[in-house]
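Usage

Read records sequentially. Each one opens with the input sequence:
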Amino acid sequence: MTQFTRAMEELGVEVIYANSPQAKGRIERLFNTFQDRLIKELRLEKANTIVEANKVTARFLPKYAKRFSVKASSDGDLHRFIPKGVDLDSILCIKEEHALRNDFTVIHDKKLYQIEDNIRAKKVVVEEKVNGSMIIIYKGRTLKFKEITARPKKAEIKKKYEFKLKKSFIPPKDHPWRKFKIKSYPQNYVYSQKEKSNKKEKELLLVH
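and closes with the structure output:
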């Protein structure tokens, strides 16, 4: 859909396309007239500049219309009044739908714009007015925005590491570790065991 077709549809005007051979023939005859008769008139009047050509055309068109125009079947005025609530500035403009990125940026006409309002939307509409101004709309709401040169960088989230000191384990009173006891041998017992082993070694030596 072209911008013109979209605007006519919003105004409630039906667009009739010249798809039939008859309609195409009419416009071709009109073009042929301007390319033939008008060119000859300009040559006869020796019009060499745009100003001179405009003067010749201003005299030529009324004569052409009087000769070839057809009277309308009805003399009434078919123009309609603009309905209340219709904003022509928002209709007779260039509208383009663009995707809204996760960082709330929009690309339009090779330029980057940052949406300053916090909205949940996948797409927004950019409107270029006749006076050269531009607005961005989402569901009838005009959004705040600004032009930027680069996409905003994502903030790096640094992980915080917490070091926890482990508490020393103190077993309870009924813990098995508390019940375990190391047996202590008396010194006399250890000494007697050494004497026995020494005697055995001597006996073995004597036998050999």
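Summary fields computed downstream for this record:
- The chain has a mean pLDDT of 82.
- The longest strand covers residues 94-99.
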